[in-house]
Amino acid sequence: MKPAAFDYAAPTRLADAIDLLVAHADAEPRVLAGGQSLVPLMNFRLAQPGFLVDLQHVDGLSDIRLTDDELVIGAMVRQSTAEESADAAAGAPLLVEALGHVAHPPIRNSGTIGGSIAHADPSAELPAVALALDATMTAAGPGGERRIPAAEFFRGPFETALGPDEILTEVRLPRRPGGHAFVEHARTHGGFAVVAVAVDLAVDDAGTVTRAAIALSGVGPTPIRATATEQALVGTVPDAESIRSAVAATVAVLSPAGDVHGSSETKVDMARSYLRRGIELALDRAASRR
Amino acid sequence: MTTVDRPTPPVRTHKAERTWVGKSIRRVEDPRFLRGRGGYIADLVLPGMLHAAVLRSPHPHARIVSIDTSRAEAAPGVHAVVTGAQAAELTDPLPDFGPNPAAHTWRCLAVDKVRYVGEGVAVVVADDRYLAEDALELIDVEYEPLPPVVDPLAALADDAPLVHEPLGSNCAYDRTFEFGDVAGDFERADVVVTDQLRWHRSGGQPLETVGAVAEHDPATGGFRVHTNSLSFTSYLFMVATALKIPANRLDIVPMPAGGSFGSKLFVTKPLVIAAMCARLTGRPVRYLEDRVDNMANCDHHGSDRHYDVRMALTRDGKITAIDIDTVDDYGAYIQFGVGHHGNALAQVVGPYTIGSVRYRVRAVLTNKNQQGAYRGFGSEVNNWMLEQMVDKAARELGMDPVEIRRRNFIRSFPHFIPTGNVYDSGDYDAVLDKTLELGRYEHWREVQEQARAEGRYIGIGLITAQERSVFSATEFWFWFDEPGAPVTSMPESVTLKVDATGAITATLYSCAFWGNSPETMVAQLVAEEFDCDPHDVSVVYQSSKNGLPATGPGGSRTTVMLAGAVEGASAKIKEKARRAAAHLLEADPDDLEWRDGGFEVRGVPEKRKTLSEIAIMLHLFKHSFDEDVESGLEESKVFDHPYTTMPSADRKDLGVFYPFMGHACHLPVVEVDVETGVVTFLDYAAVHDCGTLVNPRSLAGHIQGGTAQGIGTALYEEFVYGPDGQLQTTSYLDYPIPTSLEVPELKIGHVETPSPWTPHGIKGGGEGGRMMAPAAINAAVNDALAPLGVRITELPLTPDRIRAALRAAGHGS
Ligand SMILES: Cc1cc2nc3c(=O)[nH]c(=O)nc-3n(C[C@H](O)[C@H](O)[C@H](O)COP(=O)(O)OP(=O)(O)OC[C@H]3O[C@@H](n4cnc5c(N)ncnc54)[C@H](O)[C@@H]3O)c2cc1C
Predict the structure, then answer these.
(1) Inter-chain residue contact B133 with A45, CB threshold 8 Å
(2) Spatial CB neighbours of B148, under 8 Å, sequence gap ≥ 6
(3) Do the beta carbons of residue A281 and residue A181 sit within 8 Å?
(4) B11 CB neighbour count, 10 Å cutoff
(5) Which residues pair with B689 in a beta bridge?
(6) If B95 and its partner were Cys, which of B237, B238, B541, B566 is the partner (CB 3.0–4.6 Å)?
(7) Where are the domains of chain B?
(8) What is the number of helices (H) and of strands (E) in chain A?
(9) Least-confidence region, from A31-40, B486-495, B521-530
(10) Do A262 and A276 contact (CB within 8 A), yes or no?
(11) B508/B489 Cα distance (integer angstroms)
(12) Alpha helices by DSSP H, B65-115
């Protein structure tokens, strides 16, 4: 469990980091963020990049900014920093709640927000949050900067819209008042989700759902939106029965792959249960915040 | 049951007033380990040391057609590459206690054929482990895949592919033992309860994996090997044989185990690989398994059993007989034979007065890593099976789980169970009473009822089970008609040295710190003898070369055996000190009594000599004494197994082989989320009785830790081999182990029923928690699901298995 040989650079400027990726393109370079996913993969020799560009010292990637309508988190913000940030709590409480489910504190001390999203593990929590919140990812490459909406960002397991010479610089999360919930099943605390559900919704004074965004992790190659459930909820005052049928609309079309942690049927059972719980919790919170 | 002569050892009288034995002193090992000064294999760096890495088979079953190592040999930093075929010339097969070692030969690397995913095929020795792993990628092996043997039941079919051709079958052992009138008891039974049960394999997960650092001395042809397995003092010859050297050329230095839980017991493979490579390269070599090596290839996977069981009862709930048929999937080799079933037979009837037993065991070989030892050594599986059966019987008879157990408790001791093993002492009612109180049984029954009314599923598990201790090796050979060995002694030794200042050093043999607390135990036992502070006792470990006979930790024997050795060595020291004191005090030795750290003339407290006053005289002024007194104050005791007897020739009585019988009651309370199958703990009480306690807190640590592992076995851990023979759980991503967040804080209670036959009445307790928790948690989950008509008989109880069972019972969502 030792990595194959690689070269390494630790630039301080984003432009230099991009230049390095371009210059070493033949070596199948990778950027190194917190190393909590990449280094294990290298130790197992499942990843054998010939060149690592360490982003640790790159200026301007570690800020958290809260404006009236969005929370902007630098890609290199450590997961534990975001978890403890008052701005993050105010701007995206769903993200903060989800972070509590990502690994263990020592891993969150190194692991980054950008690293988790760029890594795009189909069982990871943050991609589901990004999808539910309609986040926008800012990517910088040799051709300049571009913004990629979450719906287009996650392409497959460990596969994103980022090009090989692009660096994720920040994640922009729109501020959306309402109620949120992040619920999941992991085999043990801190483990990857078997099934996770991120819910973000709003209700009016009458209790009518005015907006619903729900995403799941662990049930497909990428996080997915529970669009049918969202549509069934919006415009209604949900009760137990209508929540159940709204959930059923999504669950009916799920066909997750089974693995050592659960068969496809069990994952569907879990999705059903956690969708319901997530929606109920988010509705409660939305109501109590009005 | 055939009648055999049943001698019992003389009953001891135990000291009533104890100063140190029984106190929860701080563990003397802690300062070293808590400060990161343990000194593990990974910390040991010798000048010029090279590093070995092993190429592992990606196939479960394949013929090795060819191996080309030329590219690897030419790689940077590489000193040697050894294939299995070459290793077979450099070394002999590894020590193997299996039924027919010549027909299932086990070597440090595979030759001709690989038999499981992860089996070693070649080893590279390089300047560092990175370069060694680089070179592994350059070894070209051509395999001819063979159909894998994965399902042990299918492996028994006549046309199944063979794991070992010379054996002619995949069944390495098949025998039925009968103890008592089984057929008659079943005929007379009012009720017969039957079931099928399935226990999947898991294993101990040590923080440091198994490793060795070997040095070869070309001048003598000998080796000095540091390893975190045993020092093999009594078994050195077996390891030396594998290295093809005389045993007196081998010195094994024990290193702290970094956790074993059984999994480092008698591990020779890394040691032999490191030594072979050291001899070949002329440099010290470290071979330390990494986590993937360990999970796939540690040779210490736990039991993997299918059970078909019948239990005979009277209508009022008295269990009269049990008929057990088990198929155990041993994997590709069978190093310890079916000793795991000997462990089961030591306490096969649990704490109950069951009169007859039939036990059929079939040991099946498959394309998996082999079984070794894991806390309980197979007896924990029997506990689980038996308690499941008792609970099922209670259900069928409409009895409460407490009531059926009380109806069947053994209450007079010593008690010989049908297999011939003896239970020395016990008070099962006292343990049960204490558990019911500590675990608030009645309270939880009320809560359970309310919860059920609200559609919540709370379950209370209650099991009472045995915790055998201090094994005798007859359990490794009573399987055969011709054992070819008399009863074995399984010794353990201690040397005590009182230096010129009166300070005491205890030397231990056979292993270093093993995760248990041998140093604390010895320090307390020595302090008890000599009235000193246990923290002032120095405890050191000796390597095998100057070692005294010693067997090592296993079968919960360490504390009892060390207590016997300390007692014996102390008696010798006191005898010499008494003579010296008598001489110095000009008194008759018989008039002296030991009091408060010295000898004094009985009734004349001012006429006394402390141990340090005596010691300095004996060390430096020997000529003050009689001619036959030698300088110094140092004595050793080789303590042999205090009570073990021969099996009968017809094997209808296996004799005494595990006589010091602990007992425990566990009472977990769980809630099952029926939508997701997730189990959470609401409470957990555990009361253990392993005789006189040396250190209640360190025993509580064992109970807590063993229960944590039992929770792993019950809910989380499983080595999963797919139908294609691939190991699907090769890291902790796929093999979840419970963390402190999954393990509840236990309410622990102790009952102390001293053994009549051991020093101070101590019994072993090192495996306790794991012997009870799987049974208890399974019982709790089944209790929770009872209203839904669901009962699960397969461990671990993953959310997936629970959901599958609920779906099968019509509880879709
Ligand atoms: C024991 C353990 C448990 C874990 N449990 C969980 C869990 O429950 N849930 C979970 O979601 N994660 C879990 N993780 C993973 C953890 O959250 C990682 O921190 C995260 O997945 C990756 O973040 P990182 O900063 O460590 O990235 P790295 O490991 O450094 O990089 C990961 C990948 O992303 C790429 N990358 C990183 N940053 C950028 C960037 N700015 N632009 C472009 N590409 C980039 C890298 O090149 C690499 O391919 C666990 C990890 C461990 C070790």
Answers:
(1) yes
(2) B60, B61, B161, B367, B724, B725
(3) yes
(4) 11
(5) B663
(6) B238
(7) 30-37+491-639
(8) 12, 14
(9) B486-495
(10) no
(11) 18
(12) 70-73, 84-90
CA angle B239, B240, B246 (to 5 degrees): 160
> How many other C-beta atoms are found inside a 10 Å radius of the C-beta of residue B474?
25
Alpha-carbon gap, residue B510 to B512, rounded angstroms: 7
Q: Give chain A's length.
A: 290
For range B591-603, the mean pLDDT? 96
CA–CA separation, B677 and B672 (whole Å): 6
Min Cα distance B407 → chain A (Å) is 39
Cis peptide before B796 (omega within 30 of 0): yes
| Interacting residues of B169 by C-beta distance below 8 A, sequence separation 6+ | B162
Cβ contact B123:B273 at 8 Å: yes
pLDDT of A277 above 50:
yes
Tokens of A17: 């980091």
pLDDT in tens, B248-270: 999 999 999 989 999 999 999 99
As separate numbers, helices (DSSP H) first and strands (DSSP E) second, chain B gives 20, 30
User: Which residues from chain B sit within 8 angstroms of residue A194, using beta carbons?
Assistant: 799
Pairwise CA distance, residues B422 & B92, whole Å: 39
ipTM of the complex: 0.97
d(CA B776, CA B118): 34
Distance CA B377, CA B262 (A): 8
Which whole number is the average pLDDT over B302-315? Answer: 98
Q: Which of B541, B554, B737, B551 is nearest to B32 (CA)?
A: B541
Nearest by Cα to A133 from A173, A101, A172: A173
Q: Do B739 and A189 touch (CB under 8 A)?
A: yes
> Hey, whose CA ends up nearest to atom 48 of ligand 1?
A38
Q: Which residues of A touch B807 (CB under 8 A)?
A: 265, 269
Q: Whose CA is nearest to atom 14 of ligand 1?
A: A103
Contact B665, B435 (CB under 8 A): yes
Please name the residue of chain B whose CA is at the shortest distance from the CA of residue A264.
Answer: B800
**d(Cα B549, Cα B538) in Å, to the nearest integer?**
21
A61 ligand 1 Cβ < 6 A: no
CB B627 within 8 A of CB B400: no
User: Per-residue pLDDT tens for B522-537?
Assistant: 999 999 999 999 999 9
B724 contact partners, CB below 8 Å, separation of at least 6: B60, B148, B150
- Residue with token string 């928790």: B773
Contact yes or no for B9/B757 (Cβ under 8 A)? yes
Beta bridge partners of A211: A202
Chain B interface includes A46 (CB < 8 A): no
Which fold is adopted by the domain B30-37+491-639?
Answer: Aldehyde Oxidoreductase; domain 4 (3.30.365)
State the Cα–Cα distance between residues B163 and B149, nearest whole angstrom.
Answer: 7
Amino acid of residue B234: S
Candidates A129, A141, A135; CA nearest to A169 is A141
Q: How confident is the model at residue B483 (pLDDT cuts 50, 70, 90)?
A: low
Distance CA A101, CA A13 (A): 32
pLDDT of residue B1: 40
- Residue A252 class from Cβ within 10 Å (0-12 exposed, 13-18 middle, 19+ buried)? exposed
Are residues A188 and B736, on separate chains, in Cβ contact within 8 Å?
yes
CA of A36 to the centre of ligand 1 (A): 5
A75 lines ligand 1 (CB under 6 A): yes
Contact B799, A259 (CB under 8 A): no
- Look at residues B343, B448, B455, B358 and name the one whose alpha carbon lies nearest to residue B401: B448
Residues in Cβ contact with B10 at an 8 Å cutoff, skipping those fewer than 6 apart: none
**Domains, chain A:** 7-54 (3.30.43.10), 64-174 (3.30.465.10), 179-288 (3.30.390.50)
HSE-up (13 A, CA, CB side) for residue B531 = 11
